[in-house]
Design goal:
Number of strands: 5
Helix content: 25-40%
Distance between the termini: 20 Å
Strand order of the largest sheet: 3-5-4
Structural class: alpha+beta
Shape: globular
Number of domains: 1
Strand content: 15-25%
Amino acid sequence: MAENEVASREFNEEIEGAYRGDPPSNRIDILCECAAKMCDRTIDITLEEYMQVRMDSVQFAVVPDHFVGNIERIVYENDRFAVVAKREGTPADVARDDDPRG
């Protein structure tokens, strides 16, 4: 499961990179970083919100109803997305090891 989230996060890093230098309040559409292999949902998020999610390598932005309780916990939630953190053990290790920001 964690591998699916990491792949979405890598794609979202490219999207965010295309908007570097834009005002932090600008909104972008990113892919849901959930564990579902076939998820094609998008999230409306500001650059600032995405940067805050990415401050911790075990955090991911997901559509609120895509939360998987046995591998993650909700850190923050609003009407557009939820920020989840991988639980310690394999899920968190995979997220840290595959973080494109190091």
